[in-house]
Amino acid sequence: MKQKFDIIESTCVPLPLENVDTDQIIPARFLKATTRDEKFFGDNLFRDWRYAPDGSPKKDFVLNDPRYGGCILVAGKNFGSGSSREHAAWAIAGYGFRVVISSFFADIHKNNELNNFVLPVVVSEDFLSELFASIAADPAMKVRVDVPAQTVTNLATGRSETFELNGYKKYCLTNALDDIDYLLENKSKIEQFERNRQD
To answer: Which of 60, 137, 175, 196 is most buried by a 10 A CB count?
Structure first.
């Protein structure tokens, strides 16, 4: 869903597992789906961890734990490794996550998140460990992600870090533009450039 990014302040869902790959995020069998419906993919985010074979929720999985919620997923190192399926980003966005915080993302998955209006925030391993500890101590604690300032703050401790964000993607996120929207916004400039080339 296209939403403008500014300052996001939310409770978090902790997933302190490393090397979470895209098949765990959205199993391969869902790649055959003919829909692009966000809710469909969101409903099947982490499907095999989240539900038993009979479809009943697994009580010990974090998405089924009522203590945790919000639009920020805090994940372990090397999030989104494996295949390049964009469906993984669709599932994360479809569930309602707007930010994923980790100490490392697989490059293709990181770009897929950005293209689907999910902000991947890379932090130091020490900061990530502190976040997990703060969430474990108080599931109601919040994190603030300031996109214009490119800072992430653990509101339980007051500690902040800056994060990198490509200038073009930052512009698109803060203005709720996808790549096509951006081109259309600059249509007159493109047409002027073409006219100048013909002169």
So the answer is: 175
Give the count of alpha carbons within 13 A of 84, CB side only: 3
Reduce the DSSP state of residue 7 to 3 states and report it. strand
HSE (CB half, 13 Å, CA atoms) of 10? 21
**β 119-122/143-146 pair status:** unpaired
Q: What's 71's DSSP letter? A: S
What's this model's pTM, rounded to 2 decimal places?
0.93
**Buried/exposed code over 4-17 (b: 16+ C-beta within 10 A; e: otherwise):** ebeebebbbbbbbe
Strand pairing partners for 151?
Answer: 146, 162
Query: pLDDT tens digits for 70-129?
Result: 999 999 999 999 999 999 999 999 999 999 999 999 999 999 999 999 999 999 999 999
DSSP assignment of 40-54: HHHHTTTHHHHB-TT
SS (H, E, C) 159-193: EEEECCCCHHHHHHHHCCCCHHHHHHHCHHHHHHH
